[in-house]
Sequence to fold (714 residues):
Amino acid sequence: MRQRNPNKASVTIRDVAKSSGFSASTVSIVLNNAPLARYIPPQTKARIQRAAKTLGYRPNVFAKSLRSKRNHTVGVMVFDITDPYCTPIIRGIENALYQASYLPILADAHNERGRFERYLEMLLERRIEGLIVLANWLFLDINLLADIERGKIPTVIIGRELESDATSSVIVDDEAGAYSALSHLYGLGHRKIAFVRGPKALSSSRARWRGAQRFAKDTGLELDPRLIVDLPDQRNPNVGVDDACRMTEELLKRDRQFTALMAYDDMTAFGALRALARAGIKVPGNCSVVGFDDINPSQLFVPALTTIRQPMEAMGTAAVTIVNDAITAAAENRALPAVHRRLAAELVIRDSTRAIP
Amino acid sequence: MRQRNPNKASVTIRDVAKSSGFSASTVSIVLNNAPLARYIPPQTKARIQRAAKTLGYRPNVFAKSLRSKRNHTVGVMVFDITDPYCTPIIRGIENALYQASYLPILADAHNERGRFERYLEMLLERRIEGLIVLANWLFLDINLLADIERGKIPTVIIGRELESDATSSVIVDDEAGAYSALSHLYGLGHRKIAFVRGPKALSSSRARWRGAQRFAKDTGLELDPRLIVDLPDQRNPNVGVDDACRMTEELLKRDRQFTALMAYDDMTAFGALRALARAGIKVPGNCSVVGFDDINPSQLFVPALTTIRQPMEAMGTAAVTIVNDAITAAAENRALPAVHRRLAAELVIRDSTRAIP
DNA sequence: CTATTATAGCGAAACGTTTCAATAAAACAA
DNA sequence: TTGTTTTATTGAAACGTTTCGCTATAATAG
Fold:
């Protein structure tokens, strides 16, 4: 049914050649502005361009890629796109890729290892030129690393630093962020401070706690172990808020006074806010609360949440820069060592914290 | 530098052929389980499979697509990925595409027409097999439609129904949703109800208002024009909350009693909640609030927001189903008329509404 | 006037597949 | 026996590009 000439779907470079009166080679050279285009007189160029335009010529990417081995495509592997933390990072990635004329292929692992692997396979088959992994949630096993390295594709991991530093990474300075969060509370006069820490398995959780400890040591602030609770090591980010609410209630039951609460992240803070509201404790009147991340809902909340902002869009941009450099390096056959960027987090003061009267 | 044989990058089908002792044709037939594979004895198949596996053969998608004109890729054009309304829909799309072994190419128009067009061009160049447009925010001009139809690619629009119904669509039943929202408030005994309506330019805003009017007519409820305000026709969804807050304050200044407020959407509701909190009005104690959409933050809010849930994930799935059907229809050269799906929205009762004492 | 170089363009090969048409052996029918 | 069908495999062409090497003319140098 679908013969060649009769209803030929798309116009090829040879059609342009025929129509303009030049050869396919010349057309290719002109249209790509290849080095040899230097020798081609403007008149010819113009004729070819015109022909291409009137025919509506659209080069076939597959044919192109088949020869050039390039396809201007980057894989973006997310662990859970539903996580509000993800979205601004994706925005940053998307925007930077757009500037560089790359297109992102999106893969969402749904926090499942098997899915991650299947997607990785699909992406490699597609011959993506680079890969950005957004490790926004737990358990990035060691051998996942092996999976990635097998691909020999320029890769950046956002939100996690791998043990072997062969793979580039972009992370935020959790420790310094937590340090400044606690410092903020301390500056407002708070001394009895409760902590809802993140799951122990998360490296970011450990780093943030280190920051808090460091601040405490630097200033002689005492961290009361009875005011510290931990979120369980579980994998479903959606119930994180419920967990946080529960842990905060647990904390309240201990019946130990505190005037401020530092949450592992904004989601945790939301849970804490709910628990406090239920207990009739006013925020920030009776208790200040500080979060971490500055995800989108935080500014909407009543009261708007004081938090440590991760520069998420910048993280996405940074990742693209790294991957882009790696791609061009590879194209020129130069080796390029892995890059590790650690971005600063920034305190954003809103309505959920207040000085002690 | 990069000669052919020496450091040949990837293993081709001919390598498998050589290694297994059969021809490239046979290898292709076996590996794709083509019709002719019927004649190939299991032994041969096994040998070929084994060779392919040990060599780590990965078929080159470009070469494949070059012949078959198929690439198992679908464009997903979003108008603003930052909008929390988007994420669950994207999740639905991604998941459904994954089931069908398609990969999504993500494009975010940032609400800019120029960017939309550039992306559309890039996607068409990529020969995407289908296109899903997520029109989550304003101004989808008529001629955008022309742009899309020019591509002759199976397309679905989510969140908007185009005037010419040549393009398939998936929308939610805004009118019925608003009807049930108002019905809920009415059922709780509310009679003095304020409205913060959406921008007039948005068709969904008009539809929701129609739903409210219909309910009012059906029950004889009186809609006081002095309790109705409109969000301005503007294009930045991020300041939507501020606008809503301002409009609600405007409403409060009018000094007319109301016991409930129906917001255009959840974002608007957040703004209203803020204004009410500032005015010292307790929700739901002194005033009930109902939103629309059920975006992620709504359940986190204190008080958790009563709202009309859009089945966003299902909308994404539905879009993929439509596009998938269209693609297979096109592959078989059958014409398929545009499909229009209207999904039901569902009332979710949480803590921001309460019966009148 | 001849040798060189710059300019202008083209033909053909190659990228890695899939598929059509052909071939050849084996199985079967007459 | 011969002729036909089924089974098993293959060579070659085609998909639409890009690029290498070649030719041919024009300009420049000696």
